[in-house]
Specification:
globular; six-stranded mixed sheet; alpha+beta
Length: about 250
């Protein structure tokens, strides 16, 4: 078990020192919140919320403070964005105040066009994020419109296919299929397990799960990976909005 509250409180204290009374709260999303976390291959994903837009010097100070507090880390590294309460409530152009990718990257938000990945980050925070400190996540992050979620998942599928290992692309497609079916947002491992329960002889999914869990597995043919991701995209094309809160998996 990782002490995510202890780690998160260390990060929150670092941000408070940089922004003082503007600090609102800190929330953990990603695999830690969804249940697919593996210390040897997963980073820790965090959204911190501040009350107002930060001055450039505050952005820089918050970024450096987070970077300094990132290690020791319970995972492979820290990925954190600081956003305003207004952005958490409506996302707008997905502007962030500062983004940190430990061990060495600080991106200042001033004059940055924004990060579309915040769409999924914020929705996962709202549904199942871990509130380390601050108001409950469901009161800070507003529901993301269905169309924006679909667009964000499509973009994530394309990124995974172009830039990530095969297991990421395949398991990401599995969880996209689950979203298309019932609106849930789950970990990659949960998505793969759900698919394999109904298609137990699928060697591509089995190999992806084995690799994600740290076991050796042979890469499947690239054409098979591409075809599977395209199948997920087709399912997203006919998905619909759900009237009630969709379930969130936990594995």
């Amino acid at each position: 078990m990782i002490d995510i509250h202890g780690y998160g409180n260390r990060l929150a204290a670092a941000i408070r020192r940089a922004v003082a009374d503007d600090f609102v709260g800190l929330y953990v999303h990603g695999s830690v919140a969804l249940g697919g976390f593996r210390p040897e291959r997963s980073d820790v994903d965090v959204l911190a919320v501040v009350a107002h837009t930060l001055a450039p010097d505050q952005e820089a100070a918050a970024g450096e403070a987070l970077l300094a507090a990132a290690y020791p880390c319970p995972g492979t590294g820290l990925e954190a964005s600081v956003i305003t309460a207004r952005t958490a409530a409506d996302l707008g152009d997905c502007r962030f105040e500062v983004h940190v990718a430990a061990p060495d990257t600080v991106t200042i938000g001033a004059d940055h066009p924004g990060d579309p990945d915040l769409v999924l980050y914020a929705e996962v925070c709202r549904r199942s994020g871990i509130t380390v400190t601050g108001p409950a996540a469901a009161t800070v992050f507003a529901a993301v419109p269905h169309e924006r979620l679909v667009a964000a998942i499509r973009a994530e599928l394309e990124w995974g296919l172009a830039s990530a290992p095969f297991e990421y692309a395949v398991l990401n497609a599995c969880r996209a299929m689950l979203f298309a079916r019932d609106g849930s947002l789950v970990s990659k491992i949960a998505g793969g397990e759900s698919y394999l329960r109904e298609h137990s002889d699928d060697a591509v999914i089995a190999a992806a799960l084995a690799r994600q869990r740290g076991s050796d597995a042979q890469d499947p043919p690239h054409d098979a990976v591409v075809a599977f991701v395209r199948q997920a995209q087709e399912m997203l094309g006919v998905t619909r909005a759900w009237q009630s809160e969709a379930p969130v998996g936990d594995v």
